[in-house]
Amino acid sequence: MNNATVGKHPCPECGGDLQWNAAKQALACPYCGTIVPLSEAAEGVGDGSAGVVELDLLEALSRMDAQAAMPPPLPPLQQGGVVGMLQSMAATPAEQRGYGGQPREVQCQSCHAISVFVDGRVADRCEFCGSPSIIAHESLGDAITPQSVLPFKISDGQVRDIIRQWYGTRWFAPSKLKRAALTDTLKGMYLPYWTFDAQVSARWTAEAGHYYYVTVSYRDSKGNTQTRQERRTRWVPASGSLQHFFDDELVPGTVGVHPELLAKIGRFPTSTDLKPYTPEFVRGWTVERYQVDLRQAAEQGQERMQEQTRYLCSEQVPGDTQRNLQVQATYSKRTFKHILVPVWLVSYTYGARSYQVLANGYTGALAGERPYSAWKIFFTVLGAVLGLLLVLLVLGGGR
Ligand SMILES: [Zn+2]
Ligand SMILES: [Zn+2]
């Protein structure tokens, strides 16, 4: 994918750039309002997961090694020059880089999130934390192009209802939160994730423990002989093998969203509604550039697969208990994807802290942080104390 061939799916009526519309679940023209269903959209816009590509992980990592072995990057002035261009061409095929369109990138000085605006929009504050200190981020076109995107399913109208309900059940939440949640600080963002696939074949050995019971005689406190049942374990060597395919182990690449919240809003389905990436899906929305790079993410994904493999092997060990499990695993067909998933985000500052309310843009699951309004608590307590005083006065007067 390069900028010349990507993102050229203009409106059939007026030629404007199409954008994904969550409420209509279709591409829409922001200029004339024409709706273009996905199946009728120009070739290259996804109509299913058939076109979603998995990339070879080891090949990509060795390409990154080759890049790392090159001389360090040139100072910014020359970076666009011929040498810089040759460097990046040698290291990375251009068709797998960048986001398409005419993206503008900014980095927040406070939370460090990097926002990409495929439509070239200009932001005046960070959409992740609300900080006004943002600076242009030189993209160098080096980000690995997302292979696929999970388009928004929950529209902004729907998510406002969900947030309103949530706010209604928060005691002592400051009114500022309500204002932030229900006005234009609600942002739709695409977060970067890495997904990893691998085939594992493993051999394991272990000692399987089988319980058996023996009758033991003993003398009680009165000196009489008694018997009781005692459990013993017979250890038997065991071994076996395992074949397993890991499909879409997800590793988040975001720094802008608080990880506890991300963990609470549930999974993003990656097997059904993923579409091959084109800039139409993200134009008009904000994309976060990944900051967990492929190598770090691959290590995290690999660790999780190893834990899972060990667990699956231990499940195979027969008997009632086990010890000394040894697993020898080889992983093959390792592939990865860079995908974008949708979230709705409200961020606001209260006191010195920044708070986020996050909703899954596909399922609507919501998780939020909230401060307690000192004023609301103060007046509630004051009201209770005054009420109590009044009751005492009335009781006292009646005596
Ligand atoms: Zn149009
Ligand atoms: Zn920020």
Question: What does it look like?
Answer:
The chain has 399 residues and is α+β, with helices and mostly antiparallel strands. It has one domain (19-76, 89-201, 242-317, 322-368). 25% of the residues lie in helices and 33% in strands. It has eight helices and 15 strands. Strands 4, 5, 6, 7, 8, 9, 10, 11, 12, 13, 14 and 15 form a twelve-stranded mixed sheet that branches. A three-stranded antiparallel sheet has the order 1-2-3, with no helix packed on it. β13 (321-350) and β14 form a beta hairpin. α1 (57-68) runs antiparallel to α3 (82-91) and α4 packs antiparallel against α5 (175-182). The chain is flat and about 95 Å long. The model is unreliable at 1-7, 42-49 and 73-95 (pLDDT under 50). One zinc ion binds next to loops.
